[in-house]
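Researcher: Good morning. I'm working through a list of sequences from a screen, and I'd like to move beyond sequence-only analysis. For each chain I'm collecting a predicted structure so we can compare shapes side by side. This is the next one on the list. No need for commentary yet; just the structure.
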Amino acid sequence: MERGAISVTRKLARVCSGNIALIGDASGGVDAITGEGLCLAFRQADLLADCLVSGDLARYQRGHRALARQPALMARLMLLLEHRQLRGRVMRAFATRPKLFAPLLATHVGAASPFEAAANGLALGWRLLTA
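Model: Good morning. Structure tokens for this chain:
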């Protein structure tokens, strides 16, 4: 029996106002499937510290969005690939062509850009269509 809690991606319109700034889950969240919660919060805290020193919270707002972009993209991709009708095809594609998985993992951990994984994503898409 599968069990779990519902997890969602939340995007807030603003994460700072006046002299108040939000970090971590309070500032919106990426679906827990990515495992990025604490890492993202630490990156946000580091950015916020720099912005507080420079007195520029508007830069924190912009930087916050940029930090969340990659994990949010990976969350959407992971949830798409887990879809009931795709799950079996995805697992077969990874089993028969393990090199399809490595660029996705590299993108997820920040070792590759989404652009580097795009060509492999096309190969994975083709494999899913033809599997």
